[in-house]
Design brief:
With 167 residues, this protein is an alpha+beta fold. α3 packs across α4. Strands 1, 2, 3, 4, 5 and 10 form a 6-stranded antiparallel β-sheet that branches. The chain has one domain: 2-Layer Sandwich (Alpha-Beta Plaits), CATH 3.30.70.560.
Length: 167
């Protein structure tokens, strides 16, 4: 059975837009079908602020992969693209976060769905609300409602959704 999954993408090292495109293309080669892509947003880093700005987006995919298998695919793509997990909130070639997985919840050290910081991140809420405004991200809270309440000052439109075309 195909499930809808929302993935957050981010990059701030190298050719950021190319890195995001490559991640989407590789996801599509490994069991995901792209159904929607948000615009690209340039955002200030969170946590460690002395690093380049990020490009962020949210994509919706359909997949038959279960959450743990999809997580493994995402981590493998990150690794293949050169991501090295050294500093939490540090610079990265690519970051692929599972935000929401239709019909699934998880809360353990390996995987938490919905993403545990989804309500705190304008760089996730703004693009998620763009492609799925009515999706529930917490009990009774839609992406649109959460995005309307968040401080968007560090989230600047960079490119329209066509960045993800031809995937």
């Amino acid at each position: 059975m195909l499930r809808t999954v929302y993935l957050g993408l981010g990059a701030n090292i190298g050719d950021r837009e190319w890195n995001l495109r490559k991640a989407v293309r590789t996801l599509c080669e490994r069991g995901c079908k792209l159904t929607a892509a948000s615009s690209l947003y340039e955002t200030k880093p969170v946590g460690i602020t002395d690093q380049p700005d990020f490009l962020n987006a949210v994509i919706a995919v359909k997949t038959a992969l279960n959450p743990r298998d999809l997580l493994a695919v995402c981590r493998r793509i990150e690794q293949e693209m050169g991501r090295v997990r050294t500093l939490r909130y540090g610079p990265r070639v690519i970051d692929i976060d599972m935000l929401l997985y239709e019909g699934a919840e998880s809360s353990d050290d390996e995987l938490t769905i919905p993403h545990p910081r989804i309500l705190d991140r304008a760089f996730v809420l703004v693009p998620l609300a763009e492609i799925a405004p009515d999706v529930e991200i917490a009990d009774g809270v839609t992406a649109r409602a959460a995005a309307e309440r968040t401080d968007r000052s560090g989230v600047m439109l960079f490119a329209d959704p066509s960045w993800a075309d031809n995937q």
